[in-house]
Design brief:
- Helices cover 30% and strands 17% of the residues.
- It is an alpha/beta fold.
- It has one domain: 3-Layer(aba) Sandwich (Rossmann fold), CATH 3.40.50.1360.
- It has a seven-stranded parallel beta sheet with strand order 1-10-9-6-2-3-5, covered by helices on one side.
- Helix 1 packs across helix 2.
- The longest helix is centred in the N-terminal third of the chain and has 18 residues.
Amino acid sequence: MRIIRAKDYDDMSRKAANIIAAQVQLKPDCVLGLATGSTPIGTYKNLVAAYEAGDLDFSEVKSYNLDEYRGLPGDHDQSYRYFMNVNLFDHVNIDKANTHVPDGLMEDYEAACAEYDAAVAAAGHQDLQLLGIGNNGHIGFNEPCDSFIVGTHCVDLTESTIQANSRLFDSIDDVPRQAYTMGIGTIMGAKMILVIANGDAKAQAVHDMCFGPVVPSCPASILQLHPNVVVVADEAALALCPAE
């Protein structure tokens, strides 16, 4: 696991975008695993700027998103499909037919989740998987629990995650209580994993991810077992980590 220190959020976003951009430039038809939430917004802005400057071509890129709220259609302004359109897809030349987000309205969700994993595998797995990390150590919506769940699945969100996401909704009562998420096995199938984190609220989770025991009570700790993980985090998020 390699840790890259950033000065602040903007520096973290630039560094992360540079890593993703390098992947797209080296392999124009790469498969990107993408994340949502407030942390990657700056990264996506930098990627859009690079595209607008003529430095990136997304025309052959395929993408698979980590997760989606259960019960939200893709055109809902808090759905993750909507988020990706607004923050990245609408601003670059990616073919939206090559972008994939779990369907929040899937009826037979067990079959649909299995199909999502099969599609990721058929695409050759993610060349690069972008991840944020939750205050409780969750990645995607893999919440702290008693075991690592391998495949894409439906999960009950913890109260801390509901509280963290409530700032995006009119009322906490509007926050979905369940989500579909790539499982740990699907995430770990990526050839490279890029984790981004900022702010002191993430400091304990980042420390436990990088230096704590590998336990399902901190889902991100499993990343210690992956051969190619890069963590880009600002000084506040790395406050509890050793300097070297």
